[in-house]
């Protein structure tokens, strides 16, 4: 399990081996030419020149096997349904599609997301408490070496040999908590990234209540979660209802809004580089006390991703005088504030780049009157910009080249967690076959690296910190890794300008 990833998740010590003519239980030496290979195989942690290629490809191969086994299981289930000649075969198929590969609940409803329903409703999920990695009982005892996971006792720690394999790597992850928690331009960030926020949702809930934002406007799903559209707050969301920036943010002090949502003058030159929240706040005249970044990380993450990784696609679109066609997959929480993405249109308007944003969601997450999808009216900076919502499973029930506004220039997924749901394999398969640029974000470095490994060495090496991550430390209930919404980028099929 050190060198490969497995779609099936296990609890406690598990031996996984391959039948061969050698003794598979022997200790494997992960040192070659005096270079030690740690589980994440990151540049700087090991030497890529001597790392066997199969180590880099192990995750991709395992994920492919998991997809084949899933397809086989679906076929066998359909055969069983046909033989039973039952009237509820459609329901059975639907349940199969909605199975998750990992029913572990880590306390963050959006960490495991895609366009499929969760395996169980939130009411059936465990209480949000820090849990022992080994036995899943409540615990507040951290691993003394890495401070990355919780144990309830010394015996559980001694039994957790699987963590022993990862402990040196996780120590490196936790050591990066301080720089990841640094947002010098935001006055509220020392509070929202402090230790209490890493162990419970309650401090953030209290913070929003103190600002009179809790469960208001675009903040309505910020804490109670989305959970595949089944949470109480999400059920009340009607994504077709339009909101102005003032109505969505609900700030009591209008100065906190700054110039967000206001068009730039038509003669404005291209924007200067935006490398941090400080740059953006200065550009939009937002005071450092404003908590706007706690929501704006969604459009600003897309802006950063397109600016950093999609230069060839942007230049081609401008040369052909056509909008950049972007498919946003795995959409859940974003449905609550589609109007917020108009700020993305405004940021690109000085460079004369228009965007077609197509959000791909499950049909049951849309109001009954528009289950097949809808398009926002043209009230964006130019009529070339558009926001469209379509329902279905990307590259399965939906053909990306025909059902989502045309062939994409970029596929974008925020807080993806590719290993969490089987339906992500359809997205991965499309990226592999089409060569289309895929830009993904994830919550923590460990999850991001594992998911990036599905794209091979180049994708793995692309993992980087997002400067527009949410300035909020999120709890991970069996781990203590630095975790931020849209925290890390990784990229499939990145192209260089020639």
From TrEMBL:
Membrane-spanning parts: none
UniProt xrefs under Pfam families: MSS51_C (PF20179)
PROSITE patterns cross-referenced by the UniProt entry: ZF_MYND_1
Region (Disordered): 78-127
Source organism superkingdom: Eukaryota
GO molecular function, one term: zinc ion binding
MYND-type domain mapped to chain residues: 132-167
Biased composition (Acidic residues): 81-108
Alphabetic keyword roster: Metal-binding, Zinc, Zinc-finger
Matches recorded under PANTHER family: ZINC ION BINDING PROTEIN
Protein name: MYND-type domain-containing protein
Upper taxonomic lineage: Eukaryota, Sar, Stramenopiles, Ochrophyta, Bolidophyceae
């Amino acid at each position: 399990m050190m060198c490969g990833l497995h779609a099936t998740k296990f609890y406690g010590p598990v031996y996984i081996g391959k039948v061969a003519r050698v003794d598979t239980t022997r200790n494997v030496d992960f040192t070659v030419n005096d270079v030690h290979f740690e589980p994440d195989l990151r540049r700087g942690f090991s030497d890529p020149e001597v790392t066997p290629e199969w180590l880099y490809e192990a995750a991709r191969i395992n994920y492919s096997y998991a997809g084949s086994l899933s397809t086989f299981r679906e076929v066998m289930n359909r055969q069983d349904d046909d033989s039973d000649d039952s009237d509820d075969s459609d329901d059975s198929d639907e349940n199969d599609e909605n199975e998750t590969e990992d029913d572990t609940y880590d306390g963050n409803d959006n960490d495991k997301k895609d366009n499929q329903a969760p395996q169980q409703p939130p009411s059936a999920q465990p209480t949000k408490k820090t849990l022992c990695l080994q036995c899943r009982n409540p615990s507040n005892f951290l691993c003394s070496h890495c401070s990355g996971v919780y144990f309830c006792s010394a015996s559980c720690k001694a039994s957790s040999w699987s963590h022993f394999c990862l402990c040196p790597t996780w120590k490196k992850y936790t050591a990066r908590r301080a720089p990841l928690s640094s947002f010098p331009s935001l006055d509220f960030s020392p509070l929202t990234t402090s230790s209490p926020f890493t162990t419970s949702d309650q401090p953030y809930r209290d913070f929003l209540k103190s600002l009179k934002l809790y469960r208001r406007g675009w903040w309505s799903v910020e804490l109670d979660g989305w959970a595949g559209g089944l949470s109480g707050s999400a059920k009340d969301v009607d994504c077709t209802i339009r909101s102005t920036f003032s109505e969505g943010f609900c700030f009591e002090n209008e100065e906190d809004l700054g110039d967000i949502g206001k068009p730039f003058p038509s003669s404005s030159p291209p924007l200067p580089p935006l490398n941090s929240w400080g740059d953006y706040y200065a550009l939009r005249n937002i005071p450092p006390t404003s908590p706007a970044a706690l929501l704006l990380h969604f459009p600003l993450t897309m802006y950063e991703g397109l600016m950093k990784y999609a230069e060839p696609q942007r230049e081609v679109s401008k040369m052909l005088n056509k909008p950049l066609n972007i498919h946003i997959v795995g959409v859940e929480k974003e449905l609550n504030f589609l109007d917020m993405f108009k700020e993305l249109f405004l940021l690109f308007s000085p460079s004369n780049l228009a965007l077609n944003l197509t959000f791909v969601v499950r049909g049951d997450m849309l109001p009954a009157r528009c289950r097949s999808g809808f398009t926002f009216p043209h009230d964006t900076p130019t009529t070339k910009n558009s926001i469209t919502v379509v329902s279905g499973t990307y590259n399965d029930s939906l053909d990306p080249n025909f059902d989502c506004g045309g062939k994409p220039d970029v596929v974008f997924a925020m807080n993806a967690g590719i290993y969490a749901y089987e339906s992500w394999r359809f997205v991965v398969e499309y990226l592999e076959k089409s060569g289309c640029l895929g830009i993904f974000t994830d919550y923590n470095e460990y999850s991001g690296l594992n998911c990036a490994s599905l794209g091979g060495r180049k994708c793995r090496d692309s993992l980087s910190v997002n400067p527009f991550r949410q300035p909020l430390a999120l709890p991970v209930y069996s781990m203590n890794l630095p975790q931020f919404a849209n925290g890390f980028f990784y990229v499939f099929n990145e192209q260089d300008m020639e």
